[in-house]
Amino acid sequence: MESFPTSSDVIVVGGGMTGLAAAIYLARAGKSVTLFEKAASLGGRAATSNHDGYLFNRGIHGLYTGGATEEVLNELGITYTYGSPKETFLLHEGQIFPFPASASALLGSHLLKLGDKWELMSFFGTLSRIQAESLAHMSVQEWLERTIKHPVDRRILASTARVFTYCSNLDLVSAEVFVFKLQLSLKHPVLYIDGGWQTLVDGLYQAALQAGVCIRSGTRVTAVRTQDGQAKGVQLLDESVVAASCVILATGPDDAAKLVEAGAYAPLRDIVDPLIPARVACLDVALRHLPEPRYPVVQDLERPRFLSAQSVYSRIVPEGGAMIYTFKMLDPMQLSDPKQDERELEDLLDTVQPGWREVLVRRSFLPHIEAVGMLPTARGGGYAGRPGPEVPGIANLYVAGDWIGSGFLSDPSMGSARQVAQQILASEKQAGKPETM
Ligand SMILES: Cc1cc2nc3c(=O)[nH]c(=O)nc-3n(C[C@H](O)[C@H](O)[C@H](O)COP(=O)(O)OP(=O)(O)OC[C@H]3O[C@@H](n4cnc5c(N)ncnc54)[C@H](O)[C@@H]3O)c2cc1C
C-alpha cells in the first residue's frame, strides 16, 4: 500500500471543490498539505459520471458568475469552456411563454397585461438600488407581498425565487438571498460547463498535484485530534494518526460536527444542529435527441419545478444526443415523498418535452440531495446568521464549505476555502513562522 506522511503542516478533510481549492492555495504558499477524501474519487457533489458519453452531474449545476467561484477558479488558473442559456420559458397553466427578461420580451409578452408590464419594468428599473443586506430579516414571501402588487408578476418573481434559492418555502428563506442573486444575474450570466462540473474538479485536481498536495482518496477521517484547545491532527479509520499544525474540515456541516465531537469536546454541534439545508429532487434524462428544441429551459410558475436541456448549450452528450436536467425544490419544513417528486418531474418532462420516454437512453433520480448546506433564513438574519470558518474553543481548526459565510451554492464554498487559507497563512506570519516559498 502507498504510504502517506505521518505529519503535515495542514490536513484538509474532504476532496470536493472546497477542500481542493483550500489545499492548492496553501500548497502554493509553501505549506505541506495532505488531503483526505473518504470516497474512491474526488469531487463530492461536483463530480460528474460518464455513461457512454452522456455526462450526469450530481443534479443540475450552473456556474453563477460574478461571485467567489468564478474568482477563485480564475486565481487558481483553472480553465474551462462553456455555453450560456439564451432564453428561459415560463410554464403557466399548461401553456409556455417566453420569460420577460428583456424590454422587448416584456413589451411583447402575451402572458402579461399592460399594468403587469409597467409594474415589472419599474421593478427592474429600481432593483439595482436595493440594499440586499437590509432585507436580511425579511422573508422572500413578505418582501414580494410588500413590493409587487400584480398577481402574475408576483408569481413570476416567486417562481424565480424558488429556482434561485433551491427552496419552495418562501416564508422561510431570507429576501437578502433572492435580491442579491437577482441583482447579480442581471449582470453576470450562468455558465453550463463543457464536460460537466468534472472539468472543474479535474482542473483543481491537476493544480493540487502540481502544487505538491498529497492526496489520499478512499481514506476516511474518523476524528479530529486536539490537545490543550489546539488541533493536532486527525485519526483515520485504521486508527492511525496523522499530525498537523492546522486542520480544515471541508465537509458538510454534520460530518464536520461528528469529526469534532469524536474528541472530548463538541463545540460544533450547537452551531450545526439548528442549520436548515436546502434539498432538491433531481431527475436527469439522457436522450437520443431532444424532442422539443423550442423550449430548452423552462421554469414552472405554479409548482416548484425547473428544467434545463443543458446539452443545447454545452458539450455533455455524444453527437446528436440530449441531456435534460430537471429539479424540484423541496420545502425543508415538510417531509416529501420521493415517488411523488419523481412523478412530478416526469410530468414536467411530459408537458414540455413530450416524446422523451421514447428516446430515453438512461435516467438518474436523486430523491433528496443537499444542494446547500445552510439556507439563510429570515429568522436567522440572512447570510449574517451563517457560521464563520473558525471553530470556537479549538485553535487551528477551521471549517469551509457552502454553509460558511455569505454567498450561495458554490460561492461560499470557494470563498471560505480562500478565506481559511489566507487566515492560516496570516496567523503563521503573525506567529513568526517563515513561509517556505
Ligand atoms: C443538486 C445540486 C445542485 C447544485 N447546483 C449548483 C449550482 O447550480 N451552482 C453552484 O455553484 N453550486 C451548485 N451546487 C453546490 C455545489 O455542488 C457545491 O457547493 C460544490 O460542489 C462544493 O462542494 P464542497 O466541496 O463544499 O462539498 P462536497 O462536494 O459535499 O464535498 C465534501 C467532501 O467531503 C468528503 N468527506 C466527508 N466526510 C469525510 C470524512 N470523514 N473523511 C474524508 N472525507 C470526507 C465527502 O465524501 C465529499 O467528497 C449544487 C449541489 C447539488 C447537490
UniProtKB/TrEMBL annotation:
InterPro entries: FAD-dep_OxRdtase, FAD/NAD-bd_sf. It holds the Pfam family DAO. Residues 9-415 form the FAD dependent oxidoreductase domain. PANTHER family: PHYTOENE DESATURASE. This is Dehydrogenase. It comes from Reticulibacter mediterranei.
